[in-house]
Write a structure and sequence with these properties.
Elements (H helix, E strand, L loop, with lengths): L2 E8 L14 H4 L11 E5 L4 E4 L5 H7 L7 E3 L5 H4 L6 H7 L3 E5 L1 H10 L15 E5 L5 E3 L2 E10 L2 E8 L2 E4 L7 H6 L5 E5 L12 H11 L3 E5 L8 H7 L4 E3 L5 E5 L1
Parallel strand pairs: 3-4, 4-5, 5-6, 10-11, 11-12, 12-13
Antiparallel strand pairs: 1-2, 1-14, 2-3, 7-8, 8-9, 9-10
Bound molecules: zinc ion (3 copies).
One zinc ion binds next to helix 3.
């Protein structure tokens, strides 16, 4: 039995919380639990450090958590709030003197090559990031001492990768989990899952849908992520949630077993 630590790097939806220019109670809250960078997690085992998604806040998240080495990046999907910060992996290119392995679906790789075309140019400008794009599918990923199972979930019509490691799973940007994915999730105890707001949403689980999904999977503890300012203040929402469930927060650390 091995253990690893999952850190919530960001728990906010695409605009983050507070939202620029918004004067709502949640955006004006002085509670740190209401300040959310864009959604991402850090996974650290004895030998391995992995980041899931490199959103617009990637640089700030790496500095906050004092990450000094990074073995690979896993991309859930190519929406801007999950890839916009990828340029900053170049700091790790310089430190580690090698290209950064980026695991992404073939469709997402196409978008990455367009969005960061300068990193794939024949004559590269000095200092641009160096990405080693690797196909992501549902096969088990092995990184030294860490094993990760990708799971295909749906973000309206868009396939997104969720990830299971032992007794833990991370599901962001989904509103539907097809049957094979539900089977792969059997037996987990700890879950971080997308819940954008209370009202129904076209491509994300709402809070009640996410609660129902956590109950269906049967987890002991669940944290909700990818949260909009429309969700309301963390303290108010947490007071209404069933026991073992709460809104995730930036900096939350979860000890997992695999
Ligand atoms: Zn997103
Ligand atoms: Zn607001
Ligand atoms: Zn998305």
């Amino acid at each position: 039995m091995k253990t690893a630590t999952v850190t919530i790097l960001g728990s906010g939806t695409s605009q983050g919380v507070p939202v620029i220019g918004c004067g709502c109670d949640t955006c004006k809250s002085i509670d740190n639990y209401d300040k959310r960078l864009r959604s991402s997690i850090l996974i650290e085992s004895a030998e391995t450090t992995i980041v899931v998604d490199t959103g617009p806040d990637f640089r700030q998240q790496m500095l906050r958590e004092e990450v000094k080495k990074l073995d690979a990046v896993l991309i859930t999907h190519c929406h801007k709030d999950h890839i916009a910060g990828m340029d900053d992996v170049r700091s790790f290119n310089f430190l580690q003197k090698k290209a950064m392995p980026i695991y992404a679906s073939p469709a997402d790789q196409k978008v990455i090559k367009t969005e960061f075309s300068y990193a794939f140019a024949d004559n590269k400008y000095p200092g641009v990031p160096s990405f080693d794009l690797i196909d992501l599918d549902e096969n088990l990923l092995k990184f030294n001492d860490l094993y990760i199972t990708p799971i295909r979930v749906m973000h309206r019509y868009m396939p997104v990768y969720a990830f299971r490691i032992g007794n833990f799973a991370y599901i962001t940007d989904a509103n539907y989990i097809p049957e094979p994915g539900l089977e792969t999730l059997q037996g987990i105890e700890l879950l971080v899952i997308d819940a954008v707001r209370k009202e129904k949403h076209i491509s994300h689980f709402s809070l009640s849908e996410a609660v129902a999904m956590a109950q269906k999977i049967g987890v002991k503890q669940c944290w909700f992520t990818h949260i909009s300012h429309l969700m309301g203040k963390a303290a108010d929402v947490n007071a209404e949630l069933p026991s073992g469930m709460q809104l995730a927060w930036d900096g939350l650390k979860i000890e997992i077993r695999y």
